[in-house]
Amino acid sequence: MIQGFKSFLMKGNVVDLAVAVVVGTAFTGVVNALVKNVLMPLISAIVGSPTFDEFAVINLNGNIIQFGVFLTALVNFLLISAAVYFVIVMPMNKLIEFRDRKLHLGQKTEPEEVPADIQLLTEIRDSLKSPV
């Protein structure tokens, strides 16, 4: 039983997942620092407050509806999404496109010559298809 568990843990997928979680956690810290310390102060300079948490409406039953907390979470989500897209996704797509272009430059663009036996088989197939 222990050997089977050890075998499961040493599979590539489990190790890859563990590395992804660690890197994802570190990346979360970087993105949160960017949003909290760079982007939100810019919004604060424009709007006047770094968060919208103080926006609230009092209900008739005395319940407080704090839509400002939701608005702050929504703005944070949009900023984090934009940061991930412009800092990670877009440059990565450019690198992949550059790599693919570079790989295709070394390839032949001319079609390869079909071997004689394949040509013969193609002719036999085509002649069998045509009505006699």
Automatic annotation (TrEMBL):
Membrane topology listed for this record: Multi-pass membrane protein
Main localization of the protein described in the UniProt heading: membrane
Pfam families attached to this UniProt entry: MscL
Annotated signal sequence range: none
Keyword tags: Cell membrane, Ion channel, Ion transport, Membrane, Transmembrane, Transmembrane helix, Transport
Xref: Gene3D superfamilies: Large-conductance mechanosensitive channel, MscL, domain 1
Location of the protein in the cell: Cell membrane
TM region(s), chain numbering: 12-35, 64-89
InterPro entries (alphabetical): Mechanosensitive_channel_CS (IPR019823), MS_channel (IPR001185), MSC/AndL (IPR037673), MscL_channel (IPR036019)
Task performed by this protein: Channel that opens in response to stretch forces in the membrane lipid bilayer. May participate in the regulation of osmotic pressure changes within the cell.
Assembly, per entry: Homopentamer.
Annotated family: Belongs to the MscL family.
Protein name: Large-conductance mechanosensitive channel
